[in-house]
Amino acid sequence: MKILHVDTSITGPASVSRTLSAEIIQSLKQKHPYAEVTVRDLAAKPIGHLSDAHLLAAQGAVPEEPVVVDDIAAGRGALEEFLAADIVVVGAPMYNFAIPSQLKAWIDRLAVPGATFRYTEAGPEGLAGGKKIIIASSRGGVFAEALDHQESYLRMIFGFFGITDISIVRAEGVALGDEAKVSAINEARGAIAGLAA
């Protein structure tokens, strides 16, 4: 059993999504004590955003700049970690109605034709099925579905990769006062307990 733990929040110890993702990992380790856990902190060590150099390299060009070579290798490593994992836990706070740019940069390195998806005559086909995704979602407010470009995007992109087993542990309204924050975190902890059942 391999578990990949991805965190993206920039707020460090104050982060609700980091707190929840850590508690999800703790719960999974109790259930799978011999699981191998790989941690990727995209706030502490971000993967660069895609550029024309990345696209040219994907088309067969040989990059010359050492920075680009290293960044392409980092992206390949991220893809390999993702493909090898049985369970992926993603700490995903909502920033300005969407996911953090660090998380989007990581996802861009996963969206590789022939690795996580392919196009067929019948349309796109996901190639990364068979794994479980657990998203630790945090939001400062409470948002209508029309304003959600965070969880809806994550469900869509992981679904595009062929993953159907996607769970979301959500704490929302955490910026609406101490009482609302405690209540939201406690509700999320209940959802974590439910995952372990």
Helices and strands in order:
Elements: E1 2-7, H1 16-31, E2 36-41, H2 52-58, H3 66-84, E3 87-93, H4 101-110, E4 117-120, E5 123-126, E6 132-139, H5 151-160, E7 165-172, H6 178-196
Parallel strand pairs: 1-2, 1-3, 3-6, 6-7
Antiparallel strand pairs: 4-5
General description of the model:
The chain contains six helices and seven strands. It has helices spanning about 15-30, 50-60, 65-85, 100-110, 150-160, 180-195, and strands at about 1-5, 35-40, 85-95, 115-120, 125, 130-140, 165-170. Strand 6 (about 130-140), helix 5 (about 150-160) and strand 7 (about 165-170) form a beta-alpha-beta unit. Helix 1 runs parallel beside helix 6 (about 180-195). The radius of gyration is 17 Å and the shape is globular. The mean pLDDT is about 95.
